[in-house]
Amino acid sequence: MHRFAFIIHPVDVKRDVARKYPLARYLPERWVEKLLLRKEPVVLSKITGIRSLTGATTEGWFIGCPLSPRMMLSLPLEVVYAKIIRCGQIAQELGAHVIGLGAFTSVVGDGGITIAKHLDIAVTTGNSYTVATAIEAAVLGAQKMDIDIADATVAVVGATGSIGRTCAEALAPQARELLLLGRDEARLEPIAEQLRPIARGTVRVSADLARDLPTADVVITVTSALDAIIYPKDLKSGAVVVDVARPRDVSVRVARERDDVLVIEGGVVEVPGEVDFGFDFGFPPRTAYACMAETMMLALEGRIENFTLGKEVSLEQVRTMQALARKHGFRLAGFRSFERAITEEEIAAIRARRKKTYVPTAS
Q1: In what order do the strands lie in the sheet with 42-51?
Q2: For tag attachment on the chain, is the N or C end more exposed, with fewer CB atoms within 10 Å?
Q3: DSSP state for residue 106 in the 8-state scheme
Q4: Which one, of 33, 14, 25, lies nearest residue 75 by Cα?
């Protein structure tokens, strides 16, 4: 049996730290972060019960990295690397063969390359399967909202990142129009030039989210922003939004004010077998993030190699993970929206309201 480990860290500091230390919910966020900085990485739980359709099994561990997204982006890089590398060393000591970098541990620095150089086990960010599930969720969500991708404007927010760029590459041959959104048009334009020869329709770029995102029928958003960047006024009525980012890009206000748009949490996957994570990270039983699932699949396959590292994800890597998911029995686990399951009846109700005109409320 090949074993794995996966690094998790608090994304919403007060909520996530309070899962283990309830007092944290009553303290200022900055205080909680100061306490986190003094802590060392720890084993949070053992993961058991994963069984592939092939009969192969694996087990692993969640390793807790005591850093928030803000800490990872503001602390000296060598401090952040040291914490993540220590997580990997703990995984090695436990007997793991491959480790996955969760949330901001896969974003900070060079996307895992430096981490891998300091470890004797394989490393992956899980971004290949994250891309695969984001694309699948976007296409399936569009179908459920009666949107024809071939006649739709598809927007990718965060298109200069590795996940966003590959999502755009996969969807360019399908969409009537592809809209690439980011903070810097100069960085977006070379990506657009690469995609235009394979695109079904037009490809345009924009750094003005408030102006251009409301034209999109389907949105994949995957930035590294610390706070929400998409608000109720930014979405077209009837739009499908796949939010792959953690922390999420879509404001919770959208859930309260926009009952005419479908917002999906990207990358939520059903794990085969009777998996017991031994830790509550806010998902229903037997489900995990796609990046976690990629790490599990590499262990089940015995593919002990650095798989998705750096700032690039290729379509070949995405297709490889799609094939492994089919082989081992991982699949998209329905839809979740703002941390809860969303039913077919709720989707039908959203679809029925999609033609109404949205009038922004006063902020």
Answers
A1: 122-124, 98-101, 4-8, 57-64, 42-51, 273-276
A2: C
A3: G
A4: 33
pLDDT score at 244: 87
Co-location of 193 and 157 in the same domain? yes
Rg (CA), the chain: 20
pTM: 0.85
* The pLDDT of residue 359: 55
Task: Work out whether strand 218-221 and strand 202-206 pair parallel, antiparallel, or are unpaired.
Answer: unpaired
Same domain, 85 and 164: no
Does residue 144 fall inside a structural domain?
Answer: yes
Q: Decide if pLDDT at 107 tops 50.
A: yes
- Whole domain around residue 250: which residue ranges? 133-267+335-352
Contact residues for 71 (Cβ-Cβ < 8 A; gap 6+): 33, 36, 37, 80
Would residue 18 count as lying in a domain? Answer: yes
Q: What is the pLDDT of residue 358?
A: 54
pLDDT for 31 equals 81
CA dist., res. 357 & res. 363, Å (int): 18
Contact 269, 332 (CB under 8 A): yes
Cis peptide, bond prior to residue 284, ω within 30 of zero: no
Q: How confident is the model at residue 363 (pLDDT cuts 50, 70, 90)?
A: very low
> How many independent structural domains does the chain possess?
2
Tell me, yes or no, whether 89 and 174 share the same domain.
Answer: no
- In this structure, the answer to whether residues 201 and 342 fall within a common structural domain is yes
